[in-house]
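Hi F.,

I've been meaning to write this up properly since the lab meeting, where we talked about keeping a consistent format for the predictions we share between groups. The idea is simple: the sequence comes first, exactly as it goes in, then the structure tokens exactly as they come out, then a line or two of notes. No screenshots and no reformatting. I'm using this chain as the first example so we have something concrete to point to.
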Amino acid sequence: MIKYLGSKRRYLGRIVDVAKAELPDAKSALDLFSGSARVGHAFKGAGMRVLANDHNDYARTLARCYVEADDDLVAPATRLLADLQRTRPKAGWFTRSYCEEARFFHPKNGARIEAIRERIDQLDLAPLLRDVALVSLMEAADRVDSTVGVHMAYLKQWAPRAHNDLELRLPALLPRSPHGRGEAHGLDADEAARNLAADVVYLDPPYNQHNYLGNYHLWETLVRWDRPETYGVAVKRVDCKTRRSAFNSRREAAGALRRVIDAVQARLFIVSFNDEGFLDRATIEAMLSARGPVDVVSVEARRYVGARIGIYNPLGAKVGAVGKLTNNELLYVVRCER
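Output, unedited:
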């Protein structure tokens, strides 16, 4: 799966184990801020019917692949990806914008990404098969990018992996849950909390001011393929300025999370929140305690790579020292009493 800020890859097992220990008969799970779809994929692997939700198109595409699509697509997807891999490179607006004017991908790979993406739209693909192809392309591009993992900037010199050849691989499709096909939704978080219900609800909202659309605008453009108006050195989509979330606002985050917590329809929910986020532990526990008893599991995690590298000015000169290298991911576990 793609490199992702705040990814729960290192403690997926802990999240699933907590859910199974607290609610052994759980048949369904809702991931309300699905992002990379790693958590939803893990719940599906544990046999649950999964509902995923995210307001960004690239995240919904990931969820349609990893949560909604099942392993009956393995054979047709394998044939499709082999066919797409043979697509001849053709440079155009994408290569010019993101490989020449900017340096997110080497131009040789940019031209391949562009040609394959155009071909996906030319083929008459079933919707979920199309999503699997888009995710394969997204992940292939991620493996040859020239960034530190996000799209806020690109490296001054090509990363060694940027010279590798783009390679499409089959995403890890899972069997359908015995409790039914998964679903991927694109609702605002509070609307999703009001309209989607599951035995287990997992909440992993943004912790701070960093907007996921801004951090992953290339994936949004790759999925939408809409030739957006752009701005700045990072060639961001102009809608990064307008598509805002209350969870990225220090002033609004508490109210936004409280509304979601109050609306959640579940027997059990788990909230993941970083101890460096806008909201402190006491505030979150007070919100959650209105729904039932709260237990907290603390997991030490490495900080995002940018924090470990240090602070640099626009000219590339180091202007700040590296701070602490780890923080704590707090898992709040609530057995709902109402």
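Notes:
The chain has a mean pLDDT of 91.
Residues 216 and 274 are 20 Å apart (CA to CA).

If this format works for you, I'll send the rest the same way.

G.
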